[in-house]
Design goal:
About 40% of the residues lie in helices and about 20% in strands. The chain is of the alpha/beta class and about 90 residues long. A three-stranded parallel beta sheet has the order 1-2-3, with helices on both faces. Helix 1 packs parallel to helix 2. The protein is globular. The model has no long low-confidence stretch (mean pLDDT about 95).
Length: about 90
């Protein structure tokens, strides 16, 4: 994906909640196109995985996370996975 502007997010880690949906999947793909490693988080793991797979197929770095932002334990579990796989979060 080519961006219509120059921005370099190389080595930054971005978390996108609701990333399996129409609007936020676009955010996730744009962040990845700018070089960010993206954690695509959604209530529906399958939806997040589809977007993460599309990002990696396009040459980006992404993982899928099941996350419910209204449940502290769910957020903490996702945070642990994201830190393990991608590193510390720079963009939320």
């Amino acid at each position: 994906m080519k961006l219509p502007f120059e921005i370099d997010l190389k080595d930054k880690v971005a978390v996108v909640t609701g990333g399996g949906g129409v609007l936020c999947s676009g955010f996730a793909k744009t962040l990845a196109a700018a070089g960010a490693k993206v954690a695509v988080c959604d209530l529906r793991y399958e939806a997040a995985a589809k977007v993460a797979d599309e990002i990696t197929a396009a040459g980006g770095v992404a993982i899928a996370c099941e996350m419910n932002v209204l449940e502290k334990a769910s957020v903490e579990a996702a945070e642990s996975l994201i830190r393990e796989k991608l590193g510390n979060v720079d963009i939320l």
